[in-house]
Design a protein that fits this description.
The structure is a single chain. The protein has 270 residues and is of the alpha/beta class. It has a single domain (31-267), classed as Vaccinia Virus protein VP39 (Rossmann fold, 3-Layer(aba) Sandwich), CATH 3.40.50. It contains eight helices and eleven strands. The protein has helices spanning 19-24, 56-77, 82-89, 108-116, 129-138, 149-159, 178-187, 231-235; strands spanning 9-11, 14-16, 98-102, 121-126, 143-146, 163-168, 189-199, 213-217, 223-227, 242-254, 257-267. The strands form three sheets. It has a seven-stranded mixed β-sheet. Strands 1-2 form a two-stranded antiparallel sheet. It has a two-stranded antiparallel ribbon with strand order 8-9. Strand 10 and strand 11 (257-267) form a beta hairpin. Helix 2 packs across helix 5 (129-138), helix 3 packs parallel to helix 4 and helix 6 (149-159) packs parallel to helix 7. It binds S-adenosylmethionine (SAM). S-adenosylmethionine is lined by residues 57, 60, 64, 75, 82-83, 103-105, 108-109, 126-128, 131, 148-149, 169-171, 174-175.
Length: 270
């Protein structure tokens, strides 16, 4: 694993970190754990390309709109792994007649779901129109919804929409209140159905992911804000659900370093 910290080591079961080295760099302090937006540490300061009033999803929308044409090539270049992991995870899931993919992007995740369940009705949701257009071109028979995850989940939950499978791969780090959004997302899963999601965890002592919130400038000059959570904050709402998988995975490489995702798969009780 390429890493700037010789004593940090990735294993399939988690990160083994050189905490002494990290402490020397001042990054191993324990971060707040209350998990609500008020506890987010806003560092670094917003880049000048953004108005302070921009919300995290608004910023993500602008970023992915500008990135849409290059996204698939960049994902390949960065070694984007989650959709391959999803293909493996779906082997034990079924039957699936209806599937929802939140933050569907250009449709790569929906394509994996389509291969696993060729007859399922598919719905994809994304707030960047350029990304969604590409998903529409790839999967023209799917339903494509141009909306924020949080808004779609809240409205769908109120309306009693239910899906056999709900996925969200690489999107939840761009929502401001992940535990709150998941309350609605859980209601979209039919009893007995499955939920597969990723989130970006706070990894204590691992400098690239030690902060609660971070804004990085992309190569297009736009900033993208990522909100991170501790695993327990994310899993707390799943009491009573069957935990199929709860682990850390390498999602892709950023600046030569692995980006770690939390990978969760749950089955709602029948
Ligand atoms: C890293 S891409 C992942 C796309 C796809 N799941 C994949 O694996 O290729 C993240 C996507 O999430 C979308 N997104 C980010 N924040 C969102 C939000 N709050 N609501 C809806 N979509 C969002 C972006 O527009 C982008 O298309």
């Amino acid at each position: 694993m390429p890493t700037s910290d010789a004593s940090a080591r990735w294993t399939p079961d988690g990160m083994e970190l050189g905490t002494a080295a990290a402490a020397a760099r001042g990054v191993s302090r324990r971060l707040p754990t209350s998990g609500r937006p008020g506890s987010i540490i806003p560092v670094p300061a917003d880049p000048p390309t953004h108005r302070p009033s921009e919300s995290v999803p608004e910023r993500a929308r602008a970023y992915f709109e500008a990135f849409a044409a290059d996204y698939d090539a960049a994902a390949t270049e960065a070694g984007w792994e989650p959709n391959e992991l999803l293909a493996g995870a779906l082997a034990d899931v079924g039957p699936v007649r209806t599937a929802l993919d939140l933050a569907c992007g250009t449709g790569s995740t929906l394509a994996v779901v389509r291969r696993a369940f060729p007859d399922a009705g598919l719905t994809g949701v994304d707030l960047a129109g350029g990304m969604l257009e590409r998903a529409r071109a790839t999967l023209p028979d799917a339903r494509h919804v141009h909306q924020d995850i949080a808004d779609f989940a809240a409205a769908g939950a109120r309306a009693g929409e239910r899906f056999d499978l709900v996925t969200c791969i690489g999107g939840l780090e761009f929502t401001e209140d992940l535990p709150g959004v998941l309350e609605d997302v859980r209601r979209l899963v039919r009893p007995g159905g499955h939920l597969v999601i990723t989130y970006e965890p706070v990894v204590l002592g691992w400098e690239p992911q030690a902060l609660r919130a971070e804004t990085n400038l992309g190569s297009n000059g736009l900033g993208l804000t990522t909100i991170r959570w501790e695993p327990g904050e994310v899993t707390a709402g799943f009491a009573g659900w069957r935990e199929v998988s709860n682990r850390l995975v390498v999602a892709y490489q950023r600046d030569g370093l692995p980006t770690i995702y939390g990978w969760l798969q749950y089955q709602r009780p029948a």
